[in-house]
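Technical appendix A lists one of the benchmark inputs used to test multi-chain prediction within the project. The record comprises two sequence entries:
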Amino acid sequence: MDLSDEILIQRAAQEGDQRAYSQLVRRYQSQLRYSLRQLCNGDQALADDMAQEAFIKAYKALPAFRGDAKFSTWLYRIAYNLVMSEKRKKAPDVDQEAVDRAQSDEGHEEVQQLSMARDLNAAMQELSEHQREAIHLCMHRGFSHEEAASIMKMPLGTVKSHVNRARAKLQSLLDPWREEVVSG
Amino acid sequence: MDNHLMNRNDQTDSLPDFDTWLRQELQHSEPYIDDDGFCEQVMASLPAPRNRRVTERRYNFLQYGAVLLSSGIVAWNFPLGAMIDQLMSQSISLYSLIAVGLLGSTIATGAGLVALKR
């Protein structure tokens, strides 16, 4: 039986139940690692290190988690801060081989799906870093604008503006392609 | 020509709205990342769990001990005999004195406990 985040957090924080926390880690590891890979420009090793550190930091801070926000929002905020401070520490050097390897590892079966994913990925690369992050959090992860603003530590208006501009840009890049797919 | 345009418009109308489509595509293009030992690594790096119940019990014990000790010191140094003599000379009944004393100490102890709990 899948227990809710609230119950697992309560058990981990109040009773020191690490098994409860391991369920939370399993529940969010894929999403968080994928998001951080986007944020780290495909550097899987760095993204995984940051994700691991975020889970450890979140565990230590669990007693202070008041439940005002969702656990996922809180976790993303911790992870986002870690990545940002890591990026500030050293200039980002993109491991192009790692990116290519990651992209080739993604085993999409259907050609159209592969092509769509590639085109979508290419369109996403046309966005600025903040626009990409805002779109990822709001449209991919389904966070509200307010939650994304709190994760990105940006004013709400700025996040909305990033989302709107990114959406307009993606639409102009992808709409002709969508129509092409429908018309065959 | 008109038919072609109409077909094209129909197709455009049948497209899901862009936001819905984009959300779907972003989610479809996301692979599931296998745990592959990640969770074990995280769990191995966590600090050892503290038994919070035991810690809390110890903390409460210390609180009550501190309150009792301080009450004892106050009682030891309190000039109760002198106060009783003084009050007796002012013609107040002994029972009222005891009642006032008990009430006062209960309020002081209760307030001390509440303050410590906070």
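The interface with chain A takes residues 7-8, 11-12, 14-15, 18-19, 21-23, 25-35, 38-39, 41-43, 45-47, 49-53 of chain B (CB under 8 Å). The first helix of chain B runs from residue 2 to 14. Comparable benchmark entries are summarised in Table A2.
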